[in-house]
Amino acid sequence: MACQEVGPGYKSPLDAMRNAPREKIVYVPCIRRNTATTGPDYLATVDIDPHSKNYCKVIHRLDMPYLGDELHHTGWNACSSCYDDPTKKRNRLVMPSLMSTRIYIVDTDTDPVQPKIYKIVEPEEVYQKTGLGNPHTAHCLANGQVMISCLGDPKGNAKGGFVILDGCCDFAVQGNWEKPGNTTEFGYDFWYQPKFNVMISSQWGTPKVLMNGFNPEDYEKGHYGHSINVWDWDNHILKQTIDLGKVEGAIPLEVRFMHNPDRPEGFVGCALSTNVFRFYRTERVQ
Fold it and tell me: For this UniProt entry, which residues form the secretion signal (predicted)?
C-alpha cells in the first residue's frame, strides 16, 4: 500500500515489512494457452483477508478482449523507486502479453476489487517505435517511466531489448531504453540497482520456437540463451555478457538483487539445472 504523504511504496523492503498494512486482495494473471479451455486470459482478484467470508476465493475476473495474449510478468506504473516523489501514485497495473505483444494498462484505483482496462498499447505501436516484440517483465522507474523487457523482434526472432512507456500520463511507447547497438541475443527478466549503476538481464529463448512448448532439441540447436547481461544503468550500455555454461543446461531466468538496497549482490535462477548463480557488483556510485 502507498504512503501518500511521501510517495508510492516504502523506502526499503525492511521498512515495508515493518510498516505496511496487511494486504486484503491480490491480483493474479490467469493464462489460457495450449489448454483444453478456449477463452481469453483474465486478471483474477483474490480475497486474502482472513476475516472475510470470501477468504482465499476469486471475487472478480477481468477478461481480456482478445485470445492468445499470454499475460506475463506484471508491474506497477509507480512503486518504491518513486518513494521520494509525492506526485506519483501506484494506481495502474501494467500487464505485458508475451505472445500478442499487447500491453494492457489496468485501472486498480477506481475500484480495487473490480479493476478495469484503462488502455491497450497495441503491438503495432511497440513494433514501429522500438523494433521489439514479445514483452515479458514490467518495472516502474524513479523518473515515472515504465520499462518492459522483450524477447524478440516483430517476427518472433530472438532479440533482447527494453521498451519505455510514459507511466505518468498516456502510457505511450516512448522508444527503447538501450542505446542503439546494445540489444542482446536473447531477452527475459531484468533487475536494476541504481546505487551501484548496474542492471542485470537474463535470457530465455526464441519466441516463435518456444511458443508451443519446450523441446530439448531446440536448446541444442541454439534457440535458448545461457548467459546473463551486465548493463551500465546510467548510460544504457551493455558492458558485459557472462556465459553460465550451455553444457550445464543453464537457461538464466529470474533475476533478483538482495532486499537491502545498499547491498550489491543478487541471484539468478536457471532452468534445466539446479544452479542458482550469485553475482556481485564491487563499485558503488558516489
Answer: none
